[in-house]
Write a structure and sequence with these properties.
This protein has helices spanning about 5-20, 90-100, 120-130, 145-155, 195-215, and strands at about 30-40, 40-50, 55-60, 65, 75-80, 110-115, 140, 160-165, 170-175, 175-180, 185-190. With about 220 residues, it is of the alpha+beta class. The longest helix has 19 residues, at about 195-215. Belongs to the SCO1/2 family.
């Protein structure tokens, strides 16, 4: 499984931080840009962080999921395809444990984006969700055009997806779960095939929720 260099850097920093002590606030990952603004008549430097771009996809129940659908919710995003013969089943199984922990918590959502829209039609995604035991809209298996999903993976989630007919399944993609806060900023990146990292993500989700509850 290929790991994007940015994710290696950010994940390494995240887990080093986690090992030292339980953080009260998670880091904000991705690119950032200093900007000037006026506060009380004075010029101050603020930071603008990378955020997830606007999107609109359809889920397994033919419901439209977009930025507005996720308002006031943190969420975990990943990329998969239902016929994947390698890491996807492991990732789905691991994410299912986190889904069960936060089941019915409306502040927590899960988004799994198919990278094979030709095969993964709405009925196929519905069957996949049913097989996992996923009901309702808390965990959405999303269908969009290949170009829009691949662009979102690259520009929004620092991830990658591409067709590769030389490997089993015909596609390759990042095996990471990305934790996104209510402000559409990436707050964590975790190897979805590693139970320990998935367990850490679950703990970090509690930390992130607490961060908002304190506001």
């Amino acid at each position: 499984m290929k790991i994007p260099s940015l994710l290696v850097l950010f994940t390494g920093s995240l887990f080093l931080f986690a090992c030292n002590s339980a953080p009260k606030q998670l880091p904000i990952l991705g690119s950032r840009e200093p900007v000037e603004k006026i506060v009380n008549g004075k010029t101050v430097i603020d930071t603008v962080y990378q955020t997830i771009p606007a999107f609109s996809f359809m889920n397994q129940d033919s419901a439209i999921i977009n930025n507005d659908s996720l308002k006031n919710s943190i969420y975990v995003a990943d990329f998969f395809f239902t016929s994947c013969p390698s890491i996807c089943p492991i990732m789905s199984k691991n994410l299912l444990t986190v889904y069960e922990k936060f089941k019915d918590n409306q502040e927590v959502r899960f988004l799994s984006h198919t990278i094979d829209p030709k095969h993964d039609t709405i009925p196929v995604l519905k069957k996949y969700a049913d097989k996992l035991g996923v009901k309702g809209t808390q965990w959405s298996f999303l269908l969009g055009s290949k170009d829009s999903v691949y662009l979102l993976a690259k520009d929004g989630y620092m991830s990658y997806s591409k067709q590769n007919d030389s490997i089993p399944g015909g596609y390759e993609h990042s095996g990471y779960f990305l934790l996104v806060d209510k402000d559409k900023r990436i707050r964590g990146a975790y190897d979805g095939t590693d139970k320990n990292q998935v367990a850490q993500m679950s703990k970090d989700m509690d930390i992130l929720l607490t961060e908002y509850h304190k506001k």
